[in-house]
Design a protein that fits this description.
Blueprint: H1 2-43, H2 45-49, E1 62-65, E2 68-71, H3 88-97, H4 112-115, H5 120-130, H6 155-163, H7 175-187, H8 191-194, E3 212-214, E4 217-219, H9 235-244, E5 246-247, E6 251-252, H10 255-263, H11 270-280, H12 298-307, H13 319-324, H14 338-345, H15 347-350, H16 369-372, H17 377-385, H18 407-421, H19 431-439, H20 446-503
Antiparallel strand pairs: 1-2, 3-4, 5-6
Helix pairs in contact: 1-5, 3-5, 7-11, 9-11, 14-18, 18-19
Bound molecules: heme C (3 copies).
One heme C binds at residues 43-45, 47-49, 63, 70, 72-73, 75, 83, 94, 100, 106-107, 109-111, 115, 144.
Length: 504
């Protein structure tokens, strides 16, 4: 009996220990998966690998490049259609070298040049998480179909040799800025949008984070320059922008940045957002020549903030009251004029005087970075497409005016808000420029534009060289044959002669 009791309690103890062990293994797994989900958010795999209907990781989204559209594949946990059969090493190969398990080279539309710097630990966590996402058992409808010579994937090994690992971060970063650097350069791949490209479509590190074109949008200069970049933003303001897609009534994240905030940055910890900010402040300042006034002017911003809370009914201020506060005002008369367009289409939300109702998320146009920028692209982008996303704090969104206003009217209202509220002395956008921005066409590097011609020329030269070589070889062979004949003839003549001599 005592024996049995002992045995039973022994078994119970063993069972208990075993279940504690499995529970803690499960805890470890779930915390690894949770960490992996954080990394998936930080790296924003979803942004590109989403299906056209919004299905997570289903693939099918075209990433547009000057060489043509490159389709992001299915990376769900489906064994047949996704990456369910990947090993950890397979995923590491894709992220670090842009090479699939079968050895196919990927195009850098998949940002492996950035992910390459991810730590083993982060890749392991990401791998654990990706294994748990629902399987999508279908192929994306669209397929990548680039023209010659871009369809030769082997060329990417030359591209990799030319372009990878060329950026060296500033030396002596403190821990916070170093975390920020890791985030900006590797997880968040901010440079894929904010660093312009060189002739080979690699990052132009001389212009690191200096701003780059993105179809109809422009990723702004986010170096520490005070006029063109984010030098005058406080770290808290930057962190606020990453969380809410809005900063102190002065900046809103629209277009691709709206997506980055919505899908990724709003989920980051406050520490990570502040780390990004701290690092951006250490990035060598670059100036954009055209940018004469600071994109962000803390003085105007402070005046706006001081108006709170009375700012809500912006249109209720009298001209005198507004002028008293040193803010710019304007009178609106003719409905067909630029100011008339503004009153009809914008003032209900942004206020007659452009102060908006920022407390309720109707952006202030006075002091707005998009309006103060010398580059009109993001303003046109916002007017055509609106602001479709918000960050962690839900708020009002802005409707797009594509189809409601023609491109001439868009140009006209853009000129109005730039000069009235954006601090520009003059703005002369016209319908053609709006057409051009809307088309998303951006300058194609000369090398890319002429690559097909150069490739065909190269092939023609190669064919000529080979043909020349064959001809030369054939001629030489013929000549050798003839010489050999000739030699034989002379030799036999000599022989005859010798014979004659001995006979004679
Ligand atoms: C900016 C868009 C973008 C982001 C962000 C992105 N990818 Fe990709 N990815 C692509 C594109 C485009 C391709 C296809 C490239 C090609 O065809 O050469 C691709 C290919 C892949 C492949 C290869 C699949 C195969 O076997 O063919 C894997 C795996 C992959 N991505 C995983 C990821 C993971 C994991 C993340 C997040 C850490 C991620 N991607 C983030 C665009 C992106
Ligand atoms: C997919 C492209 C893309 C990615 C990735 C991206 N950005 Fe942006 N970013 C943009 C665009 C476009 C804007 C302009 C948005 C606007 O004006 O509404 C912008 C705006 C900004 C601004 C505001 C600048 C200003 O003057 O208003 C900051 C700061 C910024 N990005 C930082 C970052 C950081 C840090 C990362 C990486 C964690 C990042 N971005 C990743 C495209 C991108
Ligand atoms: C229905 C309300 C509404 C109307 C009408 C409207 N807007 Fe907006 N607008 C908004 C809201 C809300 C935001 C801020 C969006 C956010 O940050 O989520 C905004 C943001 C903006 C921004 C800042 C975008 C950025 O990226 O920094 C500009 C510039 C702007 N609006 C200009 C205009 C102009 C010009 C018109 C008239 C043609 C107009 N808006 C009409 C609601 C509106």
């Amino acid at each position: 009996m005592r024996h049995h009791l002992l045995l039973a309690s022994g078994l119970l103890l063993a069972g208990g220990l075993a279940s504690v062990a499995t529970a803690s293994a499960a805890d470890k797994d779930s915390s690894l998966i949770e960490q992996g989900q954080y990394i998936a958010r930080a790296t924003d795999c979803m942004a590109c690998h989403v299906g056209p209907d919004g299905t997570e990781f289903a693939g099918g989204k075209p990433i547009s490049t000057p060489m043509g559209d490159i389709i992001a594949p299915n990376i769900s946990s489906s064994g047949e259609y996704g990456i369910g059969n990947y090993s950890l090493e397979d995923l590491t190969g894709v992220l670090r070298n842009g090479k699939t398990p079968s050895g196919t080279h990927l195009y850098p539309a998949m940002p492996y040049p950035s992910y390459r710097g991810m730590t083993d630990e982060d890749i392991k966590a990401l791998y654990a998480y990706l294994q748990t996402v629902p399987a999508v058992d279908r192929k994306p409808k669209a397929e990548t179909d680039l023209d010659f010579p871009f369809n030769i994937r082997l060329l990417m090994s030359f591209w990799n040799a030319q372009n990878l690992d060329r950026y060296e971060p500033p030396k002596g970063l403190d821990d916070q800025a170093a975390r920020g650097q890791y985030f900006v350069d590797h997880l968040g791949h901010c440079g894929t949008c904010h660093t312009p490209r060189n002739d080979l479509m690699g990052s132009d590190y001389d212009q690191y984070l200096g701003g780059g074109p993105l179809g109809p949008w422009q990723a702004p200069n986010i170096t520490s320059n005070e006029t063109s970049g984010i030098g005058l933003w406080s770290n808290e303001q930057l962190a606020e922008y990453f969380q809410n897609g809005q900063m102190s009534y002065a900046a809103q994240a629209a277009g691709p940045m709206g997506e980055a905030v919505h899908d990724s940055l709003q989920y980051m910890s406050k520490d990570d957002r502040l780390a990004i900010a701290a690092y951006l402040k250490t990035v060598p300042a670059l100036a954009n020549e055209d940018q004469q006034q600071p994109v962000f002017d803390p003085e105007i911003n402070q005046r706006l903030l001081n108006l709170e809370p009375r700012i809500t009914p912006a249109t209720n201020y009298s001209q005198d009251e507004l002028e008293e506060r040193g803010l710019k005002t304007s009178a609106i008369e003719d409905p067909d004029s630029p100011s008339g367009l503004y009153v009809q289409h914008c003032a209900s939300c942004h206020g007659q005087e452009g102060y908006g109702q920022p407390v309720s998320h109707y952006a202030s146009l006075v002091g707005n970075t998009t309006l103060r920028s010398a580059d009109p692209r993001n303003l046109v982008g916002v007017l055509l497409n609106g602001v479709a996303y918000h960050g962690a704090t839900p708020g009002a969104l802005m409707p797009g005016f594509e189809g409601k206003l023609d491109n001439g009217q868009i140009a006209s209202v853009a000129n109005y808000v730039r000069t009235e509220f954006g601090g520009h002395a003059d703005s002369a956008l016209d319908a053609d420029q709006v057409d051009h921005i809307a088309s998303g066409k951006q300058p194609v590097p000369t090398l890319i534009r002429y690559a097909p011609l150069l490739a065909w020329l190269g092939i023609a030269v190669l064919v000529l060289l080979i043909a020349g070589g064959v001809w030369w070889w054939w001629r030489r062979r013929n000549r050798n044959d003839r010489d050999a004949h000739h030699d034989n003839d002379t030799r036999s003549n000599d022989a005859n002669r010798n014979e004659a001599r001995t006979n004679g």
